[in-house]
Recover the amino acids of this structure.
């Protein structure tokens, strides 16, 4: 793989390996939203929200891909014109691809939830709301005539099958004999109809992530020479992922009990925010804390009275009242502000992958929360 000129398709594959987009909520829309898979990518602009100012910044800085945390395509859209979808229209016209990760980043290690927990030095942390990370990998087994195995395997590799960690094009192949009998309505690629046939075949096995399984099957069926290819799909448990506690938000303990005012001061110092929305429930010493990026009202209400402090982006008025009545203080950074603090860590996470070492990641300077407390 040429590190200097990675294609968008290759970038998307690496992001899938690192960021686990399949962990996003069912209602979310993550992954590659706009772009040409063959386009070469050298510069990536990272932001929370893709606005007209961010897009102009991307054009000025000559980036080929915008990595937007919030998906700019969320609800179904019927048309993309300069009037109906001016930002998307302009991005496409300027050959700028768009990738989004949203709720998948909220749950993985080192993602948005951990970034929020880091600013208050939360210890003994664990997710508030676990997600099911089991059976995210499958083994795809297909039986291929020997002279077609390279063509079929290449199609599967191109569909991102056969990826194991930093290794690609991984497969296992076993020689054997396949048999079949096609009736008069068949047109077998090998042999003839109405005759029992024996064919030398290869049992080809590849590991496939859940997020690319459908594409892998489509690629397989497109190039396999048989009218009715025989293949099996086996769900697997990935030890490196399924045994980790993956989920939304974090709950834990401060190293030492602290006052609300000292926690506020620390947050302002670490984030650079001048103003915060605060509800003081009158807890003299705060020790047990929960945090959740963005808007996590239902989680906040469920934890009311169980934690001394809930740190988040925003909550409804009545949720704040409920927390206060239950003796749980509240700090809101602003929806986007609670997520934007994760961008620096996201860039570091991506840069650690050697395949991306020559990609320049730029954190947007035009990306700002639309709401400001004056």
């Amino acid at each position: 793989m040429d590190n200097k000129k990675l294609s968008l398709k290759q970038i998307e594959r690496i992001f899938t390996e690192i960021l686990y987009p399949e962990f996003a909520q069912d209602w979310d829309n993550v992954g590659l939203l706009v772009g040409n898979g063959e386009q070469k990518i050298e510069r990536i602009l990272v932001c929370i929200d893709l606005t007209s100012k961010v897009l102009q910044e991307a054009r000025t800085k000559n980036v080929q891909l915008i990595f937007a945390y919030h998906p700019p395509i969320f609800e179904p859209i019927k048309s993309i014109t300069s009037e109906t979808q001016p930002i998307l229209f302009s991005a496409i016209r300027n050959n700028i691809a768009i990738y989004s990760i949203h709720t998948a980043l909220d749950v993985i290690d080192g993602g948005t939830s951990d970034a929020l927990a880091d600013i208050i030095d939360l210890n003994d942390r664990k997710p508030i709301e676990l997600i099911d990370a089991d059976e995210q990998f499958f083994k795809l087994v297909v039986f291929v005539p020997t002279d077609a195995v390279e063509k079929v395997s290449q199609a599967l590799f191109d569909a991102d099958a056969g990826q194991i960690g930093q290794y690609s094009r991984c497969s296992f192949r076993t020689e054997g004999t396949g048999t079949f009998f096609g009736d008069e309505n068949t047109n077998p690629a090998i042999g003839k109809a109405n005759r029992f046939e024996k064919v030398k075949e290869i049992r080809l096995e590849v590991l496939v992530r859940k997020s690319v399984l459908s594409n892998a099957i489509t690629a397989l069926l497109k190039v396999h020479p048989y009218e009715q290819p025989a293949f099996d799909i086996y769900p697997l448990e990935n030890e490196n992922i399924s045994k980790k506690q993956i989920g939304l938000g974090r709950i834990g303990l401060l190293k030492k009990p602290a006052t609300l005012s000292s926690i506020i001061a620390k947050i302002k110092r670490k984030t650079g925010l001048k103003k915060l929305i605060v509800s003081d429930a009158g807890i003299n010493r705060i020790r047990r804390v929960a945090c959740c990026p963005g808007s996590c009202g239902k989680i906040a209400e469920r934890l009311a009275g169980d934690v001394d402090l809930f740190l988040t982006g925003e909550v409804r008025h009545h949720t704040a009242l409920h927390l206060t009545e239950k003796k749980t203080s509240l700090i809101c950074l602003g929806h986007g502000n609670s997520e934007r603090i994760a961008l620096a860590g996201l860039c570091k996470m991506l840069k650690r992958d050697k395949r991306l070492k020559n990609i320049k990641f730029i954190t947007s300077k035009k990306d700002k929360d639309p709401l400001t407390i004056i």
